[in-house]
Every structure is written in structure tokens, then in C-alpha cells.
Design brief:
The structure holds two protein chains of two kinds.
Chain A: H1 2-23, H2 25-31, H3 35-45, H4 52-63, H5 81-88, H6 96-132, H7 140-170, H8 177-210, H9 226-255, H10 259-264, E1 266-273, E2 276-281, E3 315-317, E4 320-323, E5 328-334, E6 339-343, E7 348-352, E8 358-362, H11 368-375, E9 382-386, E10 399-404, H12 406-415, E11 417-418, H13 422-446
Parallel strand pairs in A: 1-5, 4-10
Antiparallel strand pairs in A: 1-2, 2-3, 3-11, 5-8, 6-7, 6-9, 9-10
Helix pairs in contact in A: 1-6, 3-6, 7-8, 8-9
Chain B: H1 2-14, H2 23-28, H3 33-63, H4 70-76, H5 87-123, H6 131-150, H7 181-210, H8 223-254, E1 265-266, E2 269-270, H9 278-312, H10 319-332, H11 348-360, H12 362-376, H13 385-407, H14 410-416, H15 420-450, E3 452-453, H16 456-483, H17 502-532, E4 534-535, H18 605-618, H19 620-627
Antiparallel strand pairs in B: 1-2, 3-4
Helix pairs in contact in B: 3-5, 3-6, 3-17, 5-6, 5-7, 5-8, 5-9, 5-15, 6-7, 7-8, 8-9, 8-10, 9-13, 9-15, 10-12, 12-13, 13-15, 13-16, 15-16, 16-17
Classes of the chains: A alpha+beta, B mainly alpha.
Chain lengths: 447, 628
């Protein structure tokens, strides 16, 4: 059995060695003239001097990027290079170098496997000789137990390093009022979970090491202990109850806004569509006008219903600009499929669902400029992302958000255009008049 | 007529109950639970490798978003023109990776394999309650697999709406090309898959309820059986709901209904659907979807309980608590689905309620992990590869479970929903933990399945590469999520704040490739040992459960003679007073007088009297001590 395996590895090694030798360019150029091996190695060697008509093409392709590769290279194996060249140039065949590189990677992995196999064999030989000499070989329980202990230390350091390093990259202050409460809870939860994570792993891996199997040892028969079990049912239950209450009240305070505050907040509607956001400010009356998706047209992207006069003063925002310290109520809708209105810095997220409106009310507390100064990054901007899979452009569905002073906001708003512009007015009036005539005709008919 | 029956029965007798089996009836259309288990396992492994390959493909895109991999064009053709994966195909990869891993590998591959293998074996049954249904279950599953993989050969590409296939994206082919024929195939495949699960589930439940051997009452069942039993119940109650979701989606897609669709203007085209709501789909989907994660996890918990106890040579700590926490998880898993929908526009008050139920489910989970630790404590731990994977599973269960406390909290979920934090969380707690449970089961019960042992050294290599690789891949993702990087993003290049994660992404991709290549060690070991593995003894791990009393060579009906009777619970390891460190379930208490405990007799006065008499005769000093 073992002899067979031994042979297998030897053969494996020879095969690898042979292949390695064959692929070395110098060797190849001198020795080979068989077409079968040339497919994989052609362009690496660049010419091999066999097919003069194709060699020029090969040279360039080997040097240049894949896009520049001419057809002459790929068909080298089929040996029909010259005639097919112009026609296939459009198709941009794949540079054989690609296959060779891939083959190298496969070979590399194969070599790694062989090395691992050899190490395995060496260990086996070591074990066999030590048992033959009557020595105690490496006890697998001790080895693995020790490895668990090592992995505990490395793991703990890794967690520490990751918290320090990645945590620093990831953590940023919330720029909204409710965000601060969310963050407080986040920190409390992190402290608790990190503590449990570390303690549990220390316990588990050190138990694994301390109680690793020994031939003469016998485990301690300990099927249950009701007191301990009660304790570790009740303690997590209490901790979780605290977190639940904390979370529940925070959640209610975010989502359950009293009606008068809902009305007094600034109203902004945001519509998600593949793959952009459209912003509609409610205007002077602070009421977002009605919309009907059936009215959607090339000129009326949101399908705003202009028979509702509340929509006449609605303003289109090229970006989202918010006055600092002023509550704003977002109405989130969708034109086509699900999207998600997500602003990480504000701790704000709600889905955009076609057929219904979702709301999120919050108060930004830090202006963009203040945040830039804090982060020491003058290019910083708050951004709105889409967090719900929505198609090919999902990864780039963004909108800029600026939080500014009240004055700047007013100045900006004054520059924006109304949805109900002159063109729309004309269109609407025409529709209105035809509607009216239809109405009268209809009424006349009834009479 | 009578003659024929006679000769048949004679022949029967000669063959010791073996039917004449053809290749087809033995390996292909087998109705034997052991063979079906192997079929499930090997199909599951193939699907797992396929889905892992998909994940490496999209990791390449995430790791090097600006680089061409011309070799990809060879494999993927127009989906990777110029060697760069297209955004839509990226979403397809993510979708199919998720679907295959969750359903085909971790549901069918895990509970399909081990429920089939262990339920009859550990309960002392000749086979499943309905072997024919069992066979159908596998063939439905295989058909589903073939259709799912077949969707890669459709011109418009495979389904690309995420494994949760939320409509309207999955309902409107103009929104994404994967929602054309690819989605139809996905839905067909899933319907067949659910049929397979229901057939299997009914079978598992009826076998556990009706076919336990003499003496095997519920409180003598190994935890594996408890886990499979409760998993099957959960699956049977929740999978049909997914069928309804899928059927309504098929109606919306093909027959013009509006269950999920309303007010859509897709690509400038106004659709006529009105009155439906995608939220309905989300409710239906997650009513299955959340129990599903426990369907995936509970068998893994069951397998590791058995393996940890056997290899610590200690009874599992708090057997009753383990069972009750499994029951608790089963019940609670049906009332927590809303935590996937905190920010979807579901009534926020409902969100608060779901948060409460969700965090309650953390209690039984915590009890389980404490009990695992207590089982390790003062054990005599043998590090077989199965044991390594079991310990790894507990580690993932802890570290992945803890992040569930963030996501189950609706306030924190606002900022973490649909980000990489979620990806990290469920890949640890349900992906890695369950796959480790499955691998632990494979290493442990391989001798039972194939009559040979797997190579230990390769097993250790496989464990360490996978364990380290999985943490390296998923741990940094938490931080990306905290920073607000949404999942299913094709590239991190478009947002300035994500630029700092590009190097981390490259690192994760390397770690993923490292872990993926490590699986070669497993594949070589698994398939090689079928042929070249060391011959296994009957009970290689010194285990108590019934499956190790069957002969190594598989026979029809499992036990050559009578089915053994069960006398004790399955966890009498290292019982004081007994010479060996295990007492199989088939050993009666009368054979182990020296190690019996008063607790063992469950108030049976006759047995207690006999025990006392024996003790008076054999241990006079102890009796005196007790009296004194």
C-alpha cells in the first residue's frame, strides 16, 4: 500500500519536473518541433521560427496587451493563420499567453500540492522510525491541542489588530440626532459581544489544550448541573432584556414621530429608479403634490399629477441640500423596483417600494463643512447610496448630500427649478382642455 | 403460484435477505437509506464545489475591479468579455452562489445526507418509513440541481435578483436580463427542490415517530436525531409557504396577475399592474427564509453535539437543556422572520415586536454554546479531524451568533441592513458553522458510509486552511459593513469613501482563493479514501450509538439478525466504575452493575432493588459509608 503511494509521488514529481523543463523557453526553442506542445507555449517563445508568415504577428502579440493580439496567434494550432486573419480581427481572439499563464498557476498549485505531499511523507517516515526505535512519536492530540492554543493567541491578536485598524477605518461619528442614540447602543452592544467573544474563545481553546487526550487519562463524568444551567440561561436573558428595552425605545423614538412634528418638518420626496435618485422639495406650502405613476412621460419623469395644486410649487433638486439642525421628513418612493435609501453617516435607511410611500424623519446636526474639518478631508461629502439589489447599475446609484446653514440652503433653493415649468404648464393645459371637451361631449351624450 | 412463492422465498433465504440487485437498483434508483445518503452527499459536494467556484469568480472581480482576467472569457464567453465580468453576470454569480449554498448544499446536502444515514441507523430501524418516497426525494433534488446549473446555459443568463429574488426585480425581465428564462428556471428548480424537501421531511418525521427500536424512547435518542427531527418539522411547516410565494410569483410573471406588483414604470414603460405589494412577497419568503437558517444550522448542531461528546469521552453537558433549547429554537424560528424586514416599510411597531422575539432566540443559542464548553471541560479530548471541525463549528457559531445581536436590534439594523456586516454575520453563523458541522459529520461517519477511514493528516490540513481562511475572509467584512458598504456591489470604485476598502477586498479575495484551494485536500481525501482509505473497524471512535453495532459492510436492513434493543441513553462515556470509557446503548444495566447510578433507573423499583442487593454483596464498605 505504502509502496504504491510512494511510487505515485515519485511519478508525480517526475511529471512535474518534466513539464517544467519543457516549458522553459530556451529549452523549448531548441528542442521542440512537435505541434501538439506548441499550442500552449507558442507566444511565450514568441517565434520558434516555424511559421514565418505568422511570426510577425506573434511577436507583437507577445509584447502588447491582449487587445492588440492579432488572429495570427490563436489559429497557430490549427495552422490556418494567414487567410483567417482579417476576418477574425473583429472577434479579438484570446492571446495564448493567457492560457500559458493560467497553466503556470495550475502548475504552481500542483507543485505546492506535491510539496505538501512530500512533507506529509516525511512526517510519516519520522513517525514510523520513531515507533520502530520504540520512542514516543508526536502525539496528535498534543500537536493539535497546541495548535489550538497558538491559534487562540494569534486569533486574539488578530481581533485586536482588526478592531484597531479596520475599526478605525470603519467607525465614524453619526451626523444626525437619532444617530447619536444608535451609536451609543452600538457601542454598548460591541462591548458586550466583544467580551463574550473573547471569554468564550479563551475558554474553548484553552480547554481544548488543557484537556487534550492522554492515553491513560479518563474524562470526568459530568452529565449536568441544574444550577449552572439556570445561571447561564438567566444571565443572557437579563442582558438581552436590557438590550431589547434599550433598542425598542430607541427604535420607537426614531420611527414613531408625533403627528405635529411630522407636519412641521421639511418635506422632501425621493424617488428611486434604475439607477438614479430624483429629489422633489415640497416648496412653499410644504406639501408634496400628488403623483400618479400612469402620468409618467419623458417630460414628467415622476408622474406628478398637476391637477393637484400642491404640486405646482414643488421644486426639483439636483442634489440633496439640507439645512443643519432642522428636522426633515423624507418620503421615499420608487418608480420601478425595490431600492433602498441609505445614508451611512446619518444612520438612515429605508426601502423604496413601488406602490407605497415610506418615511424617515431625522435632523442632521453636522454640516458638510464641519465634517470635512473634523475628518480633515476637504473632498468629503455625505452620499446617498442604494442598498437594495436593483440591477446592473446598483453599485453606482448615488446622490450627493450637502448639509449647510439655513441661509445657504435658502440661497440654493432659490436657484432650483420648479417641476411645473412652462413646458409642463402648456402640456398640462392642453391635456386639461381635451379632458374638458371630452367631459362635455360625454355629458352631452348622456343628456 | 404457490410453487413460485416457495422458490422465491428459498432463494431469499439463501441470499440472507439480499435482493438481486442490478447496477441500476443499487447505485441509481436505490431505495436504501444508506445509498440515498451517499447520493445526497456526493451531489451536495459537487454543488458545493460549483458554488464555491462561483464565489471565487466574483471575488476576483471585487479584489481587482480594474484588472482583466482574459482567461475568464474562455469559460464565460460574453459574460466576461475582455476578461472582465459584467455587472449583471456578477449579480447572477452572487444569486446562484447563495441559492446553491443555502438550499442545495446546506439544506439538502446536510440534512439530506445525515438524516437519511443516521435516522434509521441511530434509531434501530431497517430503513426509512417510506423508501420509495425517499428515492423520489433524491431524484427531485437532483433534477432541481440540474435545472439550476442548466440556467447558466440560457442566453439571457441565470437568475440575478439575489437569492431572495425580491420582486419586482425578479418579476420584470426588462429590469434585469436574468429575470427572463433564467428566473423561470430558478423558480422551477426551487419548486422541485421544495417537493424533494417535503417528501424527505415527511419521511424523517414518520420514521422518528414510528420506527424506533425497542427501548428507544424520546429521551434516549441521540441529539443528532432530535436535531433532524425538529429540522424536518420546521422544514415541513415552512417550505410550503415558499411554494406559495414562488407560485404567486410565477403568476405575476406569466399570467399578468398583480400579487406583488404595483405602480411600475420600468425602462420608461408603464406597466398595468396595480394593487400588489412586494412586501407580501418578503413576508412569504422570510416565513420560510428565517426558519431556513435554522433548518441549515440545527443538523449541524446535532452532529457536533454527538461528535464533541464522543471525542471528549464525556456525556454531552445538559442533554435535556440541549433538547429544550433545540425545541425553543424551532418554535421561536417561526416568529422572528420580520427581522429581515425592519427597514422595508413594514409597520415599525411590528418591527419592535420582531426585535423582541429575535433577541429571545439568542438565549437557547447561548445555552447551547455554554453547554458545548462545559462538555469540553475536563474531557479527555481526542482530536480526530471530525472533532476539529466540531470545535471550529462552535467557534463560528459563537462569533457569528454574537453579531446577530446587532442585526436583531432594529435600531442598529437601520445602519447595518443590507451591508457587508450582514454578509459577514450569516456567512459565519450559518455558512461556515453549518459547513463545518457538515464536514465534521463527513469525517466522523465516513467509516459508516464507505467502510474506510479518511486520511487524518489531510483532514488536519483541510481543517486549518478552512478555519483560518474563513475567518480571514469574513472577519474584515464586519468593518466594511459598519462603514456602510452595501452588499452585492459590483465594484467599490464609484464611491470615494469605499476606496480605502479596496486593499482589504484584495486581501479577502486572496484568503478566499487560499481557502478554496484548501478544499482540494478534502476532495482528494474524500474521493481517494473511497478506494484507498484504511479499512475501518466496526466502531472506530468508541461510540455508544446504534449505528456502530451494524456490520462494516452494508447490508439491506442494516442488522444481520434481530434489531438491537436499547437500554440506556447514548452518552455514557467515561462512566465511573466502568472499565472502558464508553458503554454502548445496547448494553443492559445488568451488565454494568459496577457503574450504575441511582439516576439511571428512573424510579423503576425492581431495578433499584436489584442494584441495591448487588451493591450489598460487592461493595460492603460503600454501603456502610452511605448508611453512616
Amino acid at each position: 500500500m505504502s509502496v504504491k503511494k510512494h511510487n505515485f509521488f515519485r511519478i508525480l514529481f517526475c511529471v512535474v519536473l518534466l513539464m517544467g523543463l519543457m516549458i522553459r523557453p530556451g529549452v523549448y526553442a531548441q528542442t521542440t518541433d512537435s505541434t501538439s506542445t506548441s499550442t500552449s507555449a507558442t507566444s511565450n517563445v514568441a517565434s520558434a521560427g516555424k511559421d514565418t508568415s505568422a511570426s510577425a504577428g506573434k511577436d507583437t502579440s507577445a509584447a502588447a496587451a491582449p487587445a492588440a493580439a492579432t488572429s495570427a496567434v490563436a489559429p497557430a494550432a490549427t495552422s490556418s493563420s494567414t487567410a483567417a486573419a482579417p476576418a477574425e480581427e473583429v472577434k479579438k481572439p484570446i492571446d495564448p499567453q493567457v492560457y500559458i499563464n493560467f497553466f503556470y498557476y495550475v502548475l504552481l498549485f500542483f507543485l505546492v500540492c506535491v510539496v505538501i505531499g512530500i512533507i506529509g511523507k516525511i512526517l510519516r517516515v519520522y513517525e514510523l522510525t520513531s515507533t520502530m526505535q520504540g520512542k514516543k512519536g508526536l502525539n496528535k492530540n498534543s500537536v493539535q491541542g497546541a495548535l489550538f492554543l497558538v491559534s487562540l493567541f494569534v486569533g486574539l491578536y488578530g481581533v485586536y489588530w482588526s478592531f484597531e485598524h479596520h475599526g478605525g477605518m470603519a467607525w465614524h461619528e453619526a451626523a444626525t440626532e437619532h444617530g447619536k442614540r444608535v451609536d451609543a447602543m452600538f457601542i454598548v452592544t460591541t462591548v458586550i459581544t466583544t467580551f463574550v467573544l473573547v471569554v468564550m474563545h479563551i475558554a474553548m481553546f484553552s480547554f481544548a489544550f488543557i484537556y487534550r487526550g492522554k492515553p491513560k487519562a479518563k474524562a470526568y463524568f459530568y452529565p449536568h448541573n441544574n444550577t449552572i444551567e439556570k445561571i447561564w440561561t438567566i444571565v443572557p436573558a437579563i442582558v438581552l432584556t436590557i438590550l431589547v428595552l434599550f433598542g425598542f425605545f430607541t427604535w420607537r423614538s426614531i420611527t414613531n414621530v408625533p403627528e405635529d412634528l411630522q407636519k412641521s418638518a421639511m418635506q422632501v420626496e425621493v424617488m428611486g429608479a434604475q439607477f438614479q435618485w430624483t429629489i422633489r422639495y415640497a416648496g412653499r406650502d410644504n406639501v408634496v403634490g400628488k403623483r400618479n405613476y400612469k402620468l409618467t412621460s419623458t417630460t414628467n419623469d415622476m408622474g406628478i399629477d398637476f391637477t393637484d395644486k400642491a404640486s405646482w410649487d414643488d421644486i426639483q433638486g439636483g442634489e440633496i441640500v439640507l439645512p443643519v439642525n432642522q428636522p426633515v421628513r423624507f418620503h421615499i418612493i420608487s418608480k420601478d423596483i425595490l431600492h433602498s435609501f441609505y445614508i451611512p453617516y446619518f444612520r438612515v435607511q429605508i426601502n423604496a417600494v413601488p406602490g407605497m410611500t415610506n418615511y424617515f424623519q431625522f435632523t442632521p446636526t453636522i454640516t458638510t463643512q464641519q465634517m470635512r474639518d473634523k475628518l480633515d478631508d476637504q473632498n468629503f461629502n455625505y452620499t446617498l447610496l442604494c442598498a437594495k439589489i436593483c440591477g446592473a447599475g446598483h453599485y453606482n446609484m448615488q446622490k450627493n448630500i450637502r448639509v449647510v446653514s439655513e441661509k445657504e440652503y435658502k440661497a440654493w433653493l432659490a436657484e432650483q427649478t420648479y417641476f411645473y415649468n412652462d413646458d409642463m404648464r402648456k402640456e398640462f393645459k392642453m391635456a386639461q382642455s381635451t379632458n374638458n371637451t371630452n367631459q362635455t361631449v360625454l355629458e352631452g351624450g348622456v343628456k | 403460484m404457490s410453487q413460485i412463492t416457495l422458490s422465491h422465498s428459498e432463494e431469499h433465504h439463501e441470499a440472507h435477505g439480499h435482493h438481486h440487485e442490478t447496477f441500476l437498483s443499487k447505485y441509481v434508483f436505490s431505495q436504501d437509506h444508506k445509498m440515498i445518503a451517499k447520493q445526497f452527499l456526493i451531489t451536495g459536494i459537487i454543488m458545493g464545489v460549483f458554488a464555491m467556484f462561483l464565489s471565487v469568480l466574483f471575488r476576483l472581480q471585487l479584489g481587482w475591479p480594474d484588472k482583466d482576467f482574459p482567461i475568464l472569457e474562455t469559460f464565460l464567453g460574453k459574460w466576461a468579455e475582455g476578461g472582465r465580468i459584467k455587472p449583471e453576470f456578477f449579480l447572477s454569480l452572487v444569486t446562484i452562489h447563495g441559492t446553491i449554498m443555502v438550499f442545495f448544499v446546506l439544506t439538502a446536502g446536510l440534512s439530506g445526507t445525515f438524516s437519511n444515514l443516521l435516522i434509521p441507523y441511530q434509531l434501530g430501524a431497517r430503513d426509512m418509513a417510506s423508501p420509495f418516497m425517499n428515492m423520489l426525494s433524491y431524484w427531485f433534488f437532483l433534477t432541481a440541481c440540474v435545472i439550476m446549473i442548466g440556467s447558466f446555459f440560457v442566453e439571457s443568463g441565470p437568475a440575478a435578483a439575489g437569492w431572495t429574488i425580491y420582486p419586482p426585480l425578479s418579476a420584470v425581465p426588462t429590469a434585469i436580463s436574468g429575470s427572463g428564462l433564467g428566473m423561470t428556471l430558478w423558480l422551477t428548480s426551487m419548486t422541485l427542490f421544495i417537493a424533494s424537501q417535503v417528501l424527505g421531511g415527511i419521511n424523517y418525521i414518520s420514521t422518528v415517530l414510528n420506527m424506533r427500536t425497542k427501548g428507544m424512547d424520546f429521551w434516549k435518542m441521540p441529539l443528532t436525531i432530535w436535531a433532524f427531527f425538529l429540522t424536518a418539522i420546521t422544514g415541513l411547516l415552512s417550505f410550503p409557504v415558499l411554494v406559495s410565494a414562488v407560485v404567486l410569483l410565477i403568476f405575476d410573471r406569466s399570467f399578468g396577475t398583480s400579487f406583488y406588483l404595483s405602480d411600475l414604470v420600468v425602462q420608461g414603460q408603464i406597466l398595468p399592474n396595480e394593487g400588489g405589494s412586494p412586501i407580501l412577497f418578503e413576508h412569504l419568503f422570510w416565513f420560510l427564509g428565517h426558519p431556513e437558517v435554522y433548518i441549515v444550522l440545527m443538523p449541524a448542531l446535532g452532529l457536533t453535539s454527538e461528535v464533541i461528546s464522543t471525542n471528549s469521552r464525556k456525556p454531552i453537558f445538559g442533554y435535556h437543556a440541549m433538547v429544550y433549547s433545540l425545541i425553543g429554537i424551532t418554535v421561536l424560528s417561526f416568529i422572528v422572520w420580520g427581522h429581515h424586514m425592519f427597514v422595508t416599510g413594514m409597520n415599525p411597531f411590528l418591527g419592535g415586536v420582531f426585535m423582541i422575539t429575535t433577541l429571545i432566540i439568542a438565549v437557547p443559542s447561548a445555552v447551547k454554546s455554554f453547554n458545548y464548553l462545559a462538555t469540553l471541560w475536563r474531557g479527555n479530548i481526542r482530536f480526530t479531524p471530525a472533532m476539529m471541525f466540531a470545535i471550529g463549528m462552535v467557534s463560528f457559531f459563537i462569533s457569528g451568533g454574537l453579531t446577530g445581536i446587532y442585526l436583531g436590534n432594529s435600531s442598529l439594523d437601520i445602519n447595518l441592513h443590507d451591508t457587508y456586516f450582514v454578509v459577514a454575520h450569516f456567512h459565519l453563523v450559518m455558512g461556515s458553522a453549518s459547513i463545518f458541522g457538515m464536514l465534521c459529520g463527513v469525517y466522523h461517519w465516513y467509516p459508516k458510509m464507505f467502510g474506510r477511514l479518511m486520511d487524518e493528516r489531510l483532514g488536519y490540513l483541510h481543517f486549518w486552511v478552512t478555519f483560518i481562511g474563513a475567518y480571514l475572509v469574513f472577519f474584515p467584512m464586519h468593518f466594511m459593513g459598519i462603514d456602510g458598504v452595501p452588499r452585492r456591489y459590483y465594484a467599490f470604485t464609484e464611491f470615494p469613501f469605499m476606496a480605502k476598502w479596496l486593499t482589504v477586498n484584495t486581501f479577502i479575495t486572496w484568503a478566499a482563493i487560499f481557502a478554496a484551494l484548501g478544499q482540494v485536500a478534502f476532495l482528494v481525501n474524500f474521493f481517494g479514501s473511497i478506494r484507498w482509505g484504511k479499512k475501518a473497524p466496526q466502531n472506530p471512535w468508541g461510540s455508544n450509538t446504534l449505528e456502530w453495532t451494524t456490520p462494516v459492510k452494508h447490508i439491506h436492513g442494516n442488522w444481520p439478525g434481530e434489531i438491537p434493543t436499547v437500554h440506556r441513553w447514548p452518552y455514557d462515556y467515561s462512566k465511573p466504575g466502568h472499565e472502558e470509557d464508553f458503554i454502548p446503548q445496547t448494553v443492559p444495566f445488568s451488565a454494568t452493575m459496577s457503574s450504575n447510578l441511582p439516576h439511571d433507573f428512573e424510579g423503576n423499583p425492581e431495578a433499584e432493588r436489584l442494584q441495591k442487593e448487588w451493591e450489598v454483596q460487592n461493595k460492603p464498605e460503600e454501603q456502610k459509608d452511605l448508611k453512616g
